[in-house]
UniProtKB/TrEMBL annotation:
Fe cation 2 binds at C127, C130, C164, C167. Binds 2 Fe(2+) ions per subunit. NCBIfam families: anthran_nbaC, PRK13264.1. Fe cation 1 binds at H53, E59, H97. Its cofactor is Fe(2+). Keywords: Dioxygenase, Iron, Metal-binding, Oxidoreductase, Pyridine nucleotide biosynthesis. It comes from Sphingomonas populi. Substrate binds at E59, R101, E112. The keyword Transmembrane helix does not apply. Homodimer. Pathway: Cofactor biosynthesis; NAD(+) biosynthesis; quinolinate from L-kynurenine: step 3/3. This is 3-hydroxyanthranilate 3,4-dioxygenase. InterPro entries: 3hydroanth_dOase (IPR010329), RmlC-like_jellyroll (IPR014710), RmlC_Cupin_sf (IPR011051). The keyword Oxidoreductase applies.
């Protein structure tokens, strides 16, 4: 047993201390700096993402306070999976998903599986009018807080990348359509 592990700590106190750092678009903060294993993170509310994450590993969701909506892209459609306070959900790998936490007072625990060498994470955007994939970016994710904002901003700032090749609609960028995160 490796006794270099951090000591037990009070999660409510940790959340209170770290809440100011949990800002959109990602609104997360790692619980442990364990780069070789699972990613354990708290995610706060106040976000409505328009990207879909294609995670190469499973993701475990435990919604601890408030409700969230997990949008998934499956079978060519966007489907809603509400995860209510106190509920857990296990998402298989490679299911594009977009977590929605519109309530700024909500928060949950998300555990992502270990990233093995060569695994890449994908980030996709879909047309709000026809459902066609508008863009995809793949990266070897090292630090979710540092790596994602520039990736998102590159998409938001490029109208050509945001234009649907199927129907010609322009993706609105970071602003979701009205009712996008309704539970």
């Amino acid at each position: 047993m490796d006794m270099d592990s951090p000591a037990p700590f009070n999660l409510a106190e940790w959340l209170e201390t770290n809440r100011p750092f949990m800002k959109p678009p990602v609104t997360n903060r790692k619980l442990f700096e364990n780069e070789d294993g699972m990613i354990l993170q708290m995610l706060g509310g106040g976000n409505e993402r328009v990207d879909f994450h294609d995670d190469p590993a499973e993701e475990f969701f435990y919604q601890m306070k408030g409700d969230m909506l997990l949008k998934v892209h499956a079978d060519g459609q966007i489907k809603d999976i509400p995860i209510r306070e106190g509920e857990v959900f296990l998402l298989p790998p490679h299911v594009p998903h977009s977590p929605q936490r519109p309530d700024p007072n909500s928060w949950g625990l998300v555990i992502e599986g270990r990233r093995l060498p060569g695994m890449v994470d994908g980030f996709e955007w879909f047309c709000f009018d026809c459902g066609h994939k508008v863009d995809r970016v793949e990266i070897q994710l090292n630090d979710i807080v540092k790596d994602l904002p520039p990736l998102f901003e590159a998409f938001y700032s490029d109208a050509e990348r945001r234009t649907c090749k199927n129907c010609g609609s322009v993706h609105p960028g970071k602003e979701p359509p009205a009712g996008w995160a309704s539970l």
